[in-house]
Write a structure and sequence with these properties.
Chain lengths: 285, 275, 339
């Protein structure tokens, strides 16, 4: 009975937050602006990469590294979107809408609520990812062939990746709960760091060994590798020895660890926020 | 009743508004991690792209310099232009408007506070980047370099003031607009590669953004040995254009702030929250 | 520039808010917030604008404080046109709103106040001295170094009060300044306002409130506003005296669900309002004469009501409001839209 009620609360929190997130993301923006959002921003990011290669790589876009880098960069669009989408909710609700205290005062599953708020961003990111991949395939010679895509691996990476990124977002939500509002959101800032450590735009082995080791400890690295394999049929030299099943296993396993870590950290942050009265603080400066 | 002169009010306002920026950051040390350390990692990612394709070391210098200057661009975008969105939401904007002071002074205060904070970040990126990646910098003309840097900042923050004026009238729409500018500007201004790579026409069009010419001039002055056919214009010409842009942006900002304030008063949007 | 004899003057002010089609979502797109408002406030006066939520009080203040343009009509503050001379007006005014959340959370009370003082060009030494004095008056002297995100609503409002008075404005707009405050804090702030005005006789305050007793206690004159129109404007005493020819009764009635038929519809009852309490209904009725009471009591009894108490009392501003507006503050669902 209690279990059923808890499940009901979780579903209601998630559903309402998803609806709210969608209203915030879409309702106040002109549809045209909204469309450009999922087009101009990600494509500009991809084109920076294209020009860097075009300017300096010996074979330009024909460099053997380019397809893997392009796909990594395209899929990475999800990372800041979900990380920031979830963690920024804490900041937005606390300091902008003044709603965080009411969320806590209501019979709401806060974790489900946060994940729900991230869904709208993830949907916008999906459009951006697809369009970027299309640009790569149609205009830049990235060899993604529809018939050759490993769909089961794509599905596994999408499902497990969504969970893993959402949990990462909650972990950062915990950090946001106890820190002030700076120029940069924690989500974007951490995503910037992950851009380096996960070997998104260069082979992981290019990093100094100790940094590459950090990259190997991060599930996002394996998640990107899964997509590179599924879409391009090629794997990075660093992971050549890993089978697809092992790759998926690593993502799943690390998601479980992340789930435990995120839950514990979030509860600790909540406790600290309650103890120090941070649920309704205003820290703009 | 004789009050303080307009000049006194202007400068006191600048100092008053810069104060929370400078002090606020010192009170919440977490900004060092989020605003220096993590962005440094993201800049480093671009360094490794060039390393992966065995680019000459100067290109790594381009990225480091671009990363440092991008800090100012992000500061202008998020802590200047869009800041008025937050000020409106918290009710500060009403008080700014009611006060007998210049909007430009308030924005200048924000800018100076922001420049202080961002310079720490930019210096950290340059210092750590140079040390870690052994970037071979050799400034040919320090006075011109300084001139370009300062003029770029004046023009850039002038542009930020111009963008701020939009927020007097608009809310979330302007926020989206800022968001929309972030990556495209990084692309067309050549934050991570010489802007000339985009072609003369695009580079010329992108020169409306002060950071485009500023970066190109600073790269030429710091890495004189290279670039060759990747130079856009000569640094002195770029300095001249930047000076023009600075004047134009500040003038336009002044006019736009007055225009949008009047429009926002008419439309009743100066103090509308939750837009 | 018009004659300087008035601190504030408005002439047929009208303000219409128009929602964009997609924002309106089926609701009406136009809300008339002010509909021909004219009044004047003398220098040295504490003038109240009294009305329920949505009456147009805040809109009036926003126009006078140069935050909003009127759709039509004109207004002058310190003899300056608020539309064409807005910059000059700002040298003469200050503003405090109830429930304000302005300031920067990471700064202390003292720092926030100092920052705002700088926007008025006040020397730091002078500002600091005034801040300390004013904080002492509102009982926040020992909290001056507290960061404002640690403050309670009441403390924050006290800080806002200090901000408004810190610049010693010639004309001060107080918009629902005691909104959401406890009785004690509200009392302290009201005492502060009248004390400040007594000390600074050349200053003017325009106060908007929906608290009748606040207006009664503080204001030399009040304007009663409802649905964007001023319905009465005079000294509270004068407004109340006008009602003295009527008889005002308060009845407590048990066993009666609604007094509209039993009281409101009776001959000789010009206005009435009812509120529910634990033991029945509290009914305030304005009768054209004492004689009408017999009929009222008879009909209450006939309707099954039991009279618990009956009191004839002096008119209050609340009665004046009831008399001129035709309903009490809470009797009617207010129309939405910006005030």
């Amino acid at each position: 009975m209690a279990m059923e009620r808890r499940r009901g609360v979780t579903w209601r929190s998630f559903r309402t937050a998803t609806w709210l997130g969608w209203q915030i993301e879409s309702n106040w923006a002109d549809p045209f602006v909204f469309a450009i959002y999922s087009l101009v921003k990600p494509l500009s990011g991809a084109l920076i990469l294209v020009f860097m290669y075009a300017v300096i790589a010996k074979d330009g876009l024909g460099s053997p590294l380019f397809p893997g880098v392009f796909v990594g960069n395209a899929l990475f669009i999800y990372v800041p979107a979900v990380l920031a989408g979830i963690s920024w909710t804490i900041m937005d609700d606390r300091e902008h809408y003044g709603m965080l205290k009411y969320v806590y005062a209501a019979p709401v599953n806060v974790l489900a609520y946060l994940i729900g708020r991230g869904v709208a961003k993830a949907l916008v990111a999906t459009v951006a990812v697809v369009l970027t991949l299309l640009l790569g395939t149609l205009a830049l010679g990235v060899p993604i062939r529809f018939a050759a895509i490993d769909w089961p691996l794509v599905a596994a990476a999408l499902v497990l990746g969504s969970a893993m990124l959402a949990l990462f977002g909650i972990l950062l939500g915990a950090v946001t709960m106890v820190t002030a509002r700076h120029n940069y959101g924690v989500g974007e800032a951490v995503a910037g760091g992950l851009y380096l450590l996960c070997g998104v735009v260069f082979p992981l082995d290019t990093l100094p060994p100790w940094l590459a080791a950090v990259g190997r400890a991060l599930p996002i690295t394996y998640w990107l590798e899964a997509f590179r394999r599924a879409l391009l049929g090629q794997s990075a030299a660093s992971f050549a020895g890993l089978s697809d099943v092992a790759l998926v296993g690593i993502i799943a396993g690390s998601s479980v660890v992340l789930a435990a870590l995120a839950t514990v950290c979030f509860r600790l942050a909540e406790r600290r926020a309650r103890a120090k009265g941070l649920l309704d603080m205003q820290t703009m400066y | 009743m004789k009050g303080p002169s307009a000049w006194t009010v202007f400068w006191r306002t600048v100092i008053g508004r810069a104060y929370p920026r400078i002090i606020g950051a010192q009170r919440e040390k977490s900004w060092v991690f989020f605003e220096i350390f993590l962005p440094l990692l993201s800049v480093t990612a671009y360094v490794f792209i060039y390393r992966a394709v065995q680019a000459p070391p100067e290109f790594i210098g381009f990225v480091v310099l671009g990363g440092a200057m991008s800090a100012y661009w992000l500061n202008v975008l998020w802590s200047m232009a869009s800041q008025l969105y937050w000020e409106k939401e918290t009710g500060n904007l009403e008080l700014y408007i009611v006060a007998p002071t210049s909007r430009m002074a308030i924005l200048l205060g924000m800018a100076l506070g922001g420049v202080f904070q961002t310079t720490l970040r930019a210096v950290a990126i340059i210092a750590i980047g140079t040390l870690l990646f052994h970037v071979p910098m050799a400034a040919t003309s320090v006075p011109i370099l300084l001139g370009v840097f300062v003029t770029t900042l004046v023009a850039l923050y002038g542009m930020g003031m111009l963008l701020s004026s939009l927020f007097l009238l608009f809310g979330r729409e302007a926020w989206h607009f800022s968001n929309l500018l972030q990556e495209p500007v990084s692309l067309v201004s050549g934050f991570y590669f010489p802007v000339r790579a985009l072609g003369q026409v695009v580079a010329a069009a992108a020169s409306i953004l002060p950071i485009t010419l500023g970066l190109d001039a600073m790269r030429q002055l710091l890495f004189p040995a290279m670039l060759g056919d990747l130079r856009f214009l000569s640094p002195l010409v770029e300095l001249g254009i930047l000076s023009g842009l600075a004047v134009v942006f500040l003038f336009l900002a002044h006019r736009a702030l007055a225009f949008f304030e009047t429009l926002a008063r008419r439309e009743g949007r100066l103090s509308v929250r939750g837009q | 520039m018009v004659s300087d004899s008035f601190a504030i003057r408005t002439e047929d002010l009208r303000r219409v808010f128009r929602a964009k089609r997609r924002e309106a979502k089926g609701e009406k797109r136009e809300v008339v917030a002010l509909d021909g408002v004219s009044f004047s406030v003398d220098r040295g006066e504490l003038f109240g604008v009294l009305g329920p939520n949505g009456a147009g009080k805040t809109t009036t203040i926003k126009i006078l404080a140069t935050l909003l343009s009127p759709t039509s009509g004109r207004a002058w503050v310190a003899g300056l046109d608020v539309t064409t001379d807005s910059k000059a007006v700002r040298h003469h005014i200050g503003m405090v709103s109830g429930g304000e959340t302005s300031g920067y959370g990471l700064l202390t009370i003292e720092e926030n106040l100092w920052m705002f003082s700088q926007f008025y060009g006040i020397e730091t030494n002078v500002a600091r001295k005034r801040i300390q004095e004013l904080l002492a008056v509102v009982g926040l002297a020992d909290r001056s170094r507290t960061k404002i995100y640690h403050l309670s609503t009441g403390m924050r409002q006290k800080m806002n009060f200090v901000r408004g008075f810190l610049t010693e404005p010639e004309i001060l707009f107080l918009d629902e300044p005691t909104l959401g405050l406890d009785v004690q804090t509200a009392h302290t702030l009201r005492g502060f306002v009248s004390g400040w005005l007594a000390e600074h006789r050349d200053r003017t305050i325009l106060l908007t409130t929906h608290a009748m007793h606040e207006a009664d206690e503080l204001c030399s004159r009040v304007a009663i506003i409802d649905k964007g129109r001023i319905l009465a404007c005079d000294a509270p005493g004068v407004l109340k005296r006008e009602l003295q020819r009527d008889a005002i009764f308060r009845l407590r009635i048990a066993d009666l669900g609604d007094a509209r038929a039993a009281v409101g519809a009776q001959p000789g009852v010009s206005r009435f309002t009812q509120t529910r309490s634990d033991d029945g209904l509290n009914v305030d009725a304005i009768l054209t004469s004492d004689g009408a009471l017999t009929g009222v009591l008879g009909s209450v009894q006939a309707a099954g009501g039991r009279l618990l108490s009956l009191e004839k009392r002096e008119p209050t501003l609340e009665d004046v409001f009831l008399h001129v507006v035709g309903h009490g503050f809470d009797d009617e669902a207010r129309e939405g839209g910006s005030e």
